[in-house]
């Protein structure tokens, strides 16, 4: 028998992580519930004035998405660290960045993708104008993978730590600022009927940058954390 | 040159050379500081728009420069650590972080003090102040991560990665914030980067910037020596040093 | 120029002086702190 | 250095906090040899094993495989190594078969059929059982069955016999002897007495 090719190994690990998540359903549900609840809190806190809500809806949804993404980050490597599987992955015959990328993809499908599905409903609840909802969908589609990718570096650095969670947020949130700025402003511009291609191109640029660099950084960080 | 560099890379030599440099650095720092402060507070004329309040920039701008510069040094050390595993780079990286954080804090605090008479509030979401705040978070992340990892060798390698990742992100964050700022406030009233600054203000500004650079070296060297003693306390050269 | 005019800083004294004093405190204290670390490092090593 | 020396430990040191766990450690292991690492708790057995896997960085010195430093070989080295650590490294939410398939997918699969591998360790009936339903001993056996489903010459085992009964211990010892006979190399720690009389065993006591 021969060793798997790179793409086969990638798909294998992706499927394995999806299977694990599927058998551990809470992992799906929790970030999603958190996302919905945070968005719900805003009208309660600032008053359900339709104009006000519609105006700050992009900000609310994106801040909530950011927090939900951050809270779910730990699960990328946590269970593999706890049961020793991470050692096995680090010693595998395949390049580690590829495996990290597979894990991050699985993580995004499990935690980021549900946000994508639910966000139009929340946008409607906050009274976001119709023409902005398509752009919201687009920004979440492009933006949340960046959050998972960049976040994976942070988790890789904090994976063995007893109080990794709080450190993780300090490490990761500043790095999320550009995504937040461009995503929220794209939606706002769309609500105002303006052209949003500049913001979308920026988000795409972030995505490609994160796709090419963060798996390498996260793999290096994992190696260091495990030593 | 290379040999000298190589020598500097060995802990006992670095310890000794840094120790020899300390008094000189202290003297140069004081001279530059006195000249800069005198030029900035006394010789430079009041600004025709901002009166005397602009004199804060002699602290604010060099601090902001230093905060960026030190982060760049840290990222460079990060590369050296990961590629060549040089011990001195590890020490320089972790010793630089609190100094950089101090300068960042200074830039923020003085920016706020400058903003009050200019804008009427202590805090404005101005591009420079906002970037500076995020930079402070990046510094705190580095310091926090180093503190959280018990094995200090692992910790320095971890913050090496973090510093490099941060360095890649700093320009992105900076331009995002600038862009965001122009979007929400129109033309800002930032007068820090006036295109033409009079030489009577420029010279003290540069003197202060130099003074801060020298201060960085001074604080860095002493802090590196402390860190070296701490880390290499079991090694022969420390024992010999103490025995003397 | 007389001294009180200088200290008055054209009415901006409460902004200008705190900036300089704060810078002095932060930079000076850092040096003191580092020096304390250094001394305690020396003491710890010599106790062995 | 002769061709048969596969693994070479060169002036290795490991320091934790203030304590020197070991230093100036030199060793040669030839094909067909086993290294039994002994020592009290906290004497650095696990650290040594992790350095040998390449997961951990030594404070000084290096480890050579066929004459080349292992950090240069990287994946070319790790694909020849199987490591069973303190943790079993199996996923609770997957079945035994799924776990072994994963092991093969991540490494260099050997020709051994997975069902045969399970059968050999008395896990045949549990092929489709989730690992979370297995006992500690069964889990350990599953972890050890990793060794034969991939082609690896060097086995690094940290307390392999934890929670195993006498019978299965003996079974694994036969398996180790067979691996050594096939020119394999084993590095392991164990608190248990080893009943491998035919094996060429080097002992290393880290307590001294």
Record keyword descriptors for this entry:
heterotetramer, A: 227 residues, mainly alpha, 9 helices, 84% helix, elongated, D: 208 residues, alpha/beta, 5-stranded parallel beta sheet, 4-stranded antiparallel beta sheet, 31% helix, globular
Q: Indicate the overall shape of chain B.
A: globular
Poorly predicted sequence stretches spanning 5 or more consecutive residues of chain B: 186-191
* Low-confidence spans of chain D: none
Helicity level of chain D, as a percent range?
A: 25-40%
Q: Greatest contact pair?
A: B-C, 38 and 27 residues
User: What number of structural domains do the residues of chain B give?
Assistant: 1
Number of strands of chain B: 0
Largest sheet of chain B: none
What can you tell me about this protein's structure?
The complex is a heterotetramer of chains A (227), B (244), C (48) and D (208). Chain B is an all-alpha fold. Chain B is 81% helix and 0% strand. The radius of gyration of chain C is 19 Å and the shape is rod-shaped. Chain D has seven helices and nine strands. Chain D has helices at residues 45-53, 70-73, 75-78, 96-106, 114-120, 136-149, 166-181, and strands spanning 5-16, 19-30, 33-38, 60-65, 68-69, 81-84, 154-158, 185-189, 200-205. The longest helix of chain D has 16 residues, at 166-181. The model of chain D has no long low-confidence stretch (mean pLDDT 86). Chains in contact: A-B, A-D, B-C, B-D. Chain A binds chain B through residues 153, 157-158, 161, 163-164, 167, 170-171, 173-175, 177-178, 181-182, 185, 206, 213, 217, 220-221, 224-225, 227, and chain B through 82, 134, 137-138, 140-141, 144-145, 148-149, 154, 157-158, 161-162, 164-166, 168-169, 172-173, 176-177, 179-180, 183.
Please summarize what this structure is.
The complex is a heterotetramer of chains A (227), B (244), C (48) and D (208). Chain C is mostly helical and 48 residues long.
Record the SSE blueprint.
The complex is a heterotetramer of chains A (227), B (244), C (48) and D (208).
Chain A: H1 6-23, H2 26-46, H3 50-73, H4 78-82, H5 85-90, H6 96-125, H7 130-158, H8 164-191, H9 197-226
Helix pairs in contact in A: 1-6, 2-3, 2-6, 3-6, 3-7, 3-8, 6-7, 6-9, 7-8, 7-9, 8-9
Chain B: H1 2-8, H2 11-43, H3 57-84, H4 87-119, H5 127-148, H6 152-185, H7 199-231, H8 236-243
Chain D: E1 5-16, E2 19-30, E3 33-38, H1 45-53, E4 60-65, E5 68-69, H2 70-73, H3 75-78, E6 81-84, H4 96-106, H5 114-120, H6 136-149, E7 154-158, H7 166-181, E8 185-189, E9 200-205
Parallel strand pairs in D: 3-8, 3-9, 6-7, 7-8
Antiparallel strand pairs in D: 1-2, 1-4, 4-5
């Amino acid at each position: 028998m021969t060793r798997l090719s790179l793409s086969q190994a990638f798909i294998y690990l992706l499927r394995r992580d999806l299977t694990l998540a599927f058998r551990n359903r809470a992992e799906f549900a929790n970030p999603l519930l958190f996302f919905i609840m945070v968005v719900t809190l805003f009208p309660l806190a600032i008053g359900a004035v339709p104009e006000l809500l519609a105006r700050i809806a992009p900000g609310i949804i994106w801040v909530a998405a950011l927090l939900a993404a951050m809270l779910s980050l730990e699960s990328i490597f946590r269970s593999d660290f706890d049961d020793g599987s991470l050692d096995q992955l680090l010693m595998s015959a395949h390049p580690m960045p590829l495996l990290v990328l597979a894990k991050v993809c699985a993580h995004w499908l499990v935690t980021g993708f549900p946000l994508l599905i639910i966000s139009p409903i929340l946008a409607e609840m906050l009274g976001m104008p119709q023409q902005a909802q398509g752009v919201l969908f687009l920004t979440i589609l492009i933006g949340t993978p960046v959050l998972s990718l960049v976040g994976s570096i942070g988790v890789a650095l904090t994976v063995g730590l007893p109080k990794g969670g709080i450190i993780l947020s300090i490490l990761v949130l500043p790095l999320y600022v550009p995504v937040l700025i461009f995503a929220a402003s794209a939606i706002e511009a769309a609500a105002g009927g303006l052209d949003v291609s500049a913001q979308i191109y920026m988000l795409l640029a972030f995505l490609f940058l994160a796709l090419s660099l963060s798996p390498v950084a996260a793999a290096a960080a994992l190696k260091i954390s495990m030593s | 040159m290379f040999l000298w560099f190589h020598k500097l890379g060995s802990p006992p030599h670095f310890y000794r050379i840094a120790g020899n440099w300390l008094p000189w650095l202290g003297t140069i720092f004081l001279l530059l500081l006195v000249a800069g402060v005198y030029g900035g507070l006394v010789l430079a004329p009041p600004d025709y728009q901002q009166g005397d309040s602009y004199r804060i920039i002699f602290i604010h701008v060099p601090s902001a420069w230093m905060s960026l510069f030190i982060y760049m040094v840290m990222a460079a050390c990060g590369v050296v650590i990961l590629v060549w595993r040089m011990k001195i780079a590890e020490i320089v990286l972790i010793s630089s972080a609190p100094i950089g954080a101090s300068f960042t804090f200074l830039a923020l605090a003085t920016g706020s003090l400058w903003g009050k008479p200019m804008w009427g509030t202590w805090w404005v979401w101005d591009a420079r102040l906002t970037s500076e705040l995020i930079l402070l978070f990046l510094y705190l992340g580095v310091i926090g991560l180093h503190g959280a990892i018990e094995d200090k060798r692992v910790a320095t390698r971890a913050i090496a990665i973090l510093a490099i990742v941060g360095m890649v992100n700093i320009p992105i964050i900076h331009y995002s914030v600038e862009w965001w700022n122009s979007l929400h406030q129109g033309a800002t009233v930032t007068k820090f980067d006036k295109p033409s600054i009079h030489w009577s203000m420029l010279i003290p500004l540069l003197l202060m910037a130099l003074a801060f650079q020298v201060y960085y070296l001074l604080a860095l060297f002493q802090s590196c020596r402390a860190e070296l003693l701490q880390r290499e306390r079991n090694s022969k050269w420390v024992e010999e040093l103490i025995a003397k | 120029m007389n001294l009180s005019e200088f200290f008055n800083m054209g009415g901006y004294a409460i902004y200008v002086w705190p900036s300089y004093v704060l810078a002095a405190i932060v930079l000076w204290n850092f040096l003191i702190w580092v020096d304390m670390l250094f001394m305690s490092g020396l003491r710890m090593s010599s106790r062995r | 250095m002769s061709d048969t020396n596969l693994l070479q430990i060169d002036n290795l040191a490991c320091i934790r906090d203030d304590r020197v766990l070991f230093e100036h450690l030199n060793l040669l292991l030839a094909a067909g040899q086993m290294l039994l690492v002994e020592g009290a708790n906290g004497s650095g057995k696990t650290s040594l094993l992790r350095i040998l896997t390449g997961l951990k960085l030594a404070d000084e010195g290096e480890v050579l495989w066929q004459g080349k430093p292992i950090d240069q070989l990287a994946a070319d080295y790790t694909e020849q190594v199987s490591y069973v650590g303190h943790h079993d490294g199996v996923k609770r939410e997957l079945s035994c078969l799924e776990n072994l398939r994963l092991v093969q997918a991540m490494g260099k699969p050997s020709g051994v059929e997975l069902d045969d591998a399970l059968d050999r360790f008395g896990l045949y009936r549990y092929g489709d059982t989730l690992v979370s339903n297995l006992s500690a001993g069964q889990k350990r056996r599953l972890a050890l069955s990793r060794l034969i489903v991939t082609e690896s010459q060097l086995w690094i085992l940290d307390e392999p016999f934890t929670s195993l009964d006498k019978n299965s211990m003996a079974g694994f010892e036969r398996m180790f002897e067979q691996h050594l006979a096939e020119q394999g190399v084993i590095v392991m720690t164990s608190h248990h007495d080893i009943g491998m009389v035919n094996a060429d065993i080097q002992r290393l006591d880290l307590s001294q």
